[in-house]
Amino acid sequence: MSFLEKLIFKPSVSVRHSERIRNIVPGDYNNDGRLDLLVMSGNTEGANAISVYFSDLIGGFERPVQAPSSATAQPFLVDSNGDMKIDLLGTSPINNKLVLWKNIWNGTDPNNRVFNLTEPLFQGNTPCDISDPHSNAFIDLDGDCLADIFLTCQKPNSQQRTFQIWVNSAEQDNFVFKMSGQFPNGMGSITFADMDRDGTIDMVFPTCRSIDSQLGIGHKCSLNIVYNKQRPLCKSGSSAQDQGFCRTPNDLCTKDSDFQFDFSEDTSNEWFERIDLETAFGFDSLLMNDVTYDPPLPVTVRIGDLTLDGYPDIIVIGVSGSGNRSPYILNSIPCSHNIAGCDSRGNGRRGFKVVTAGTETVRRITDARGVAVMDLDEDV
Q1: Tens digits of per-residue pLDDT, 94-146?
Q2: Quick check: 111 and 93 in contact, CB under 8 A?
């Protein structure tokens, strides 16, 4: 019997929610070791109702516990003080200011409150207006093994998106402003990954000159990689190790306060890579938004090491001239001449090529709306 023949769908449990669901975020919100569900739903214009379904002892869920509502820009998960409890960071529907849903769950509390709204502990600047949709993240960007806060920003009535980075300060028990910057026009959602395997987290996102709001399709698109300009991990036998230009395994969690993300498109900037899809791969349109949802759902560039060489590959939903939407796998390879992502001399951090062999089944899909990468049969 093949692996696919062994796969069986077993219905588990069904939960009926009274309002239109906008998002579901699984997580252990009461620290009992079981998976709960945080449900965001549309109750009023300009707000998301937040409900938490705690798992019970028999595989189902208890009646929901209500939490303070958020603005339509959905809050994201953080651990604001390192207590291993899931907090939320988002925007208040009352004044559109950034607030923290602090996890205060106590099983003996007769009020059964999960979150308490407080001001986030930010120092050094004013938090920006969160874009909607956003690519906010709780992720280590300076290499100290403490998750930092990345915010995507957009002022009201503006098309320009910017970002802020707030680094986690263990000494001050808060988040300190590090930098801000401006994104290229026509950008999509950001994916974070270590694209060049140097031990630092990079950004990957698409940009398009125009996006059809009815179809969600972007035209004249490019793929952008912004490498984290940070002291990397030492390679075996590296001379840089002797000079202190890299981090040894013993210094894995060493903070680099001088890390940068350089969006300069100057040809001398090796830390920013823009790949014109039509020139490199023969197609220039991407599915940027899934318009079957209301509001449309951003389609994220997917990252996964499909070739098991240690370097992340990229999957995008390309759109043909006839409108077919198919997944394209872009294999990460060493730079050389005439490779997308490398300069005219064949230099660069990583190059990419379209995978054709063995992808015929995937390419026959013509109505793709998204891609998920997972190891179903646990053969790695």
Answers
A1: 888 999 999 999 888 777 789 999 999 999 999 999 999 999 999 999 999 99
A2: no
Around 357, how many Cα atoms within 13 Å sit in the side-chain half-sphere? Answer: 3
Residue 26 inside a domain? The answer is yes
- Provide, for the chain, the percentages of residues in helix, strand and coil under a 3-state DSSP scheme, each rounded to the nearest 5: 5, 35, 55
Q: State whether 193 and 87 are in the same domain.
A: no
Which DSSP state fits 75? -
> What's the chain's length in residues?
380
Last residue of a domain, one of 50, 81, 107: 107
State the virtual CA torsion across 150, 155, 156, 157 in degrees, nearest 10.
-120
| Count of the separate structural domains present in the chain | 2
Report the SS3 class of residue 55.
Answer: strand
Tell me, yes or no, whether 310 lies in a domain: yes
Query: Which amino acid would we find at residue 319?
Result: V
Mean pLDDT value across the chain: 91
Does residue 160 form part of some domain?
no
List pLDDT tens digits, range 232-253: 988 876 665 555 788 888 888 9
Contact at 8 Å (CB) between 155 and 129? Answer: yes
Backbone dihedral region of 244: left (phi > 0), alpha (psi from -120 to 50 degrees) or beta?
Answer: left
By C-alpha distance, which of 289, 308, 310 is closest to 300? 289
Query: Same domain, yes or no, for 200 and 334?
Result: yes
Domain co-membership, 369 together with 282 = yes
Handedness of CA 14, 15, 17, 23 (dihedral sign): negative
**Rounded Cα gap, residues 285 and 188, in angstroms:** 13
> In which element (H, E) is residue 326 found?
strand 325-333
Residue 102 domain boundaries: 19-107
Does residue 332 share a domain with residue 190?
A: yes
The DSSP symbol for 315 reads: E
List beta partners, residue 330.
314, 354
Give me the sign of the Cα torsion angle 276, 320, 325, 131. Answer: positive
What is the number of other CB atoms lying within 10 angstroms of the CB of residue 1? 5
Domain end position, chosen among 75, 107, 139: 107
- The owner of tokens 């988040």 is 175
Would residue 347 count as lying in a domain?
Answer: yes
